[in-house]
Amino acid sequence: MEAARSKDGTEIVYERTGSGPTVVLVSGALMGRSDMRPLAVALSSELTVVVYDRRSRGDSTDAESAFPDSAEREIEDLRALVTAIGESFYLYGHSSGAALALRASARLRPKRLVLHEAPFHPDSQPPDEGIGGFSEGLEELFERGDHEGMVEHFLKSGGVTDEQIVEMKKGEDWDGWVANGRALAYDSAAMGDRSGGRIPTEVLSEIACPTLTLAGSETYDGLIDVSRTLAEKMIDARFVLVGGANHESGPDLIAPPVRDFLRS
Fold first, then answer.
1. Cα–Cα distance, 185 to 255 (Å, whole number)
2. Which of 14, 146, 246, 252 is deepest in the core (most CB within 10 A)?
3. What is the DSSP string of 129-156?
4. Contact status, residue 182 vs residue 147, Cβ threshold 8 Å
5. Whether the Cβ atoms of residue 84 and residue 2 lie closer than 8 Å to each other
6. Contact assessment for residue 187 and residue 197, using Cβ atoms and an 8 Å cutoff
7. pTM value surpassing 0.85
8. Strands 2-5 and 89-94
């Protein structure tokens, strides 16, 4: 386990495995570096893989006390991390981590970028007025320090029912989700929920590196739509539909196209 210190003093804890060119994996909502280890192991035969706890998760700290209004702090975290690694790098992001990786790439210039099901609101669908309300509700819970409430608010926004949440609370993942619940504020900022949660087209022209956008054939239609749209709008990008995969699919399905793209 190693650590990098971000601009505001936040300590970002990371670990690396494997050998070869370096890829940094950015986790999605409620996830930490432990959740990314299976993918890291699957890629490590040909790549040096760095997994880290985003701020306010796992072993990483958070020097900020206010609800974030942008992804700036997390971009600074990634800058500190890649500076500590001290070499050129690839970047992979899953779900809201893909939204962060997209925004960070405009500033940090990775050699290659993989965006795995960034959950922006699809251009093909009318504006979702509930997205801004979701952010407002999350901020209220953040200010109260109700991290469990933040997790419930997030899950309900994705269509999870009260009855399903009761059952989830009996599961082994719940305590870990609550421990990472405060970090949902940063996921919301990376997604741009306050302004509608759509693809941040203003940054796409600033990303010139080869990019792969991934979506599983069994995932939500909107995620496929967004992944395809990103590939169409970016300078040098291609879309791959992974047969049999859904949003939570593991490395057996996701690692092969990621490895092929990064090593091509």
1. 29
2. 14
3. THHHHHHHHHHHHHHHT-HHHHHHHHHH
4. yes
5. yes
6. no
7. yes
8. unpaired
- Domains of the chain, by residue range, sit at 2-125+196-262, 130-187
Instruction: Give, in degrees to the nearest 5, the angle at Cα 70 between 69 and 75.
Output: 145
**How far is 205 from 47, CA to CA, in rounded Å?**
28
| CATH topology classification for 2-125+196-262 | Rossmann fold (3.40.50)
Give the type of residue at 9. G
Whole-angstrom distance, CA of residue 58 vs CA of residue 13: 8
Task: Decide: 51 and 33 in contact? Cβ < 8 Å.
Answer: yes
CA–CA separation, 122 vs 124, rounded Å? 5
24: exposed, middle or buried (Cβ count in 10 Å: 0-12, 13-18, 19+): buried
Question: Which tokens go with 1?
Answer: 């386990």
- Tokens representing 28 are 């999605």
List Cα–Cα distances, 87 to 22, 60, 81, 82, 129, in angstroms. 8, 22, 11, 7, 42
Distance CA 32, CA 56 (A): 10
Tens of pLDDT, residues 78-126:
999 999 998 899 999 999 999 999 999 999 999 999 999 999 998 877 7
Cα–Cα distance between 239 and 212 in angstroms, integer? 6
For residue 15, list its beta bridge partners: 51
Length of the chain equals 264
Question: Does residue 34 have a pLDDT over 70?
Answer: yes
**What are the helix and strand counts (H, E) for the chain?**
11, 8
Q: What is the pLDDT of residues 48-80, one digit of tens each?
A: 999 999 999 999 999 999 999 999 999 999 999
